[in-house]
Amino acid sequence: MTTAVSPPVPDGSTHRLLALSANLLPPEVVQQRRLVRIRLVVLASLGTVIVLLAAGYAVAHWQSTRQEQKLADAQTEAIVLHQQMRAYDELVTAQTQTTKIDTQLAKLLATDVQWATLFGKLRAAAPRGLDLTGVSVALTDPTTQGTSGGSSSTTTASGLPSADGKTPIGSLTINGTSTTKTAIAGYVDSIGKVTGVGNVLLAGVTDQDDGTDFTLRADLAPTLLSHHYTSASD
User: Fold this and answer.
1) Helix or strand or coil: residue 129?
2) What is d(CA 174, CA 22) in angstroms, rounded to the nearest whole number?
3) Mean pLDDT split into 10-residue runs, the chain, 234 residues
4) Residue 152 to residues 120, 144, 166: CA-CA distances in angstroms?
5) Fold topology of 113-142+156-224
6) What is the rounded distance in angstroms from the CA atom of residue 63 to the CA atom of residue 162?
7) C-alpha atoms less than 13 angstroms from C-alpha of 133 in its C-beta half-sphere
8) In the chain, what are the domain boundaries?
9) Which residue intervals are annotated with compositional bias (Low complexity) in the record (predicted)?
10) Nearest-CA neighbor of 187 among 229, 116, 125?
């Protein structure tokens, strides 16, 4: 069995309702409300900016105060150290004076030689029958001492070229008398072996009734310098 359903027939008594709305506020009120909202947004933005500026100023002030405190601490420490250094003023002054004295001694005694030792060796080298009557030394200016450059040789006090190229510190003159000329020749060889003495020459020989007078001349090498007062920086 089949049942047919027919759509309902619209009833003329049914009414359709429409949703209608209308803004009945005056335009002046609407405009006023918009201005109020804009002002609130602007004030909120300004407040945020002011808060950020205040926070930045506070951070900058804190950092500045911290740096000033560090500077004050450093200055205080420097003052304390300076006061502590005053306790050593006398020591520092003494060290400075000692350094000056050492420098002056190094300049004044640049040609310091142990003369007693050298003269003792010269006397000890004299053979039997030979006596020394005089020994003299002539020192050169320390500022002119040095080594020769290139292939040119340095002229020594004796007039002979230096074997090692170093300028002698001075010349040595020995006067004496001997019973034989053989003893004089042997003495020339002996003092030529003394450390620091070189280029030994027989400068003069004079025969006397009781013997022979002689004069020797030699160069003094820089190895004779004692360097006792030479500064550490030299």
Assistant:
1) coil
2) 143
3) 53 56 72 86 89 89 88 88 80 82 70 82 92 89 49 51 71 93 93 89 90 92 75 48
4) 35, 16, 12
5) Alpha-Beta Plaits (3.30.70)
6) 75
7) 10
8) 29-111, 113-142+156-224
9) 143-159
10) 125
Phi-psi category of residue 136: left, alpha or beta, with phi > 0 → left and psi -120 to 50 → alpha: beta
Task: Provide the token pair at 84.
Answer: 């502590």
Specify the pLDDT at position 109: 64
Strand-pairing partners, residue 175, are 134, 215
| Residue type, position 57, single letter | Y
Radius of gyration, CA atoms only, the chain:
56
Q: By the 8 A CB rule, do 215 and 174 touch? A: yes
- Residue 4, CA atoms < 13 Å, CB-side half-sphere: 1
Report residue 216 as tokens. 């020797």
The amino acid that residue 108 corresponds to is: L
| pLDDT at position 23 | 64
Task: Retrieve residue 72's tokens.
Answer: 């004050």
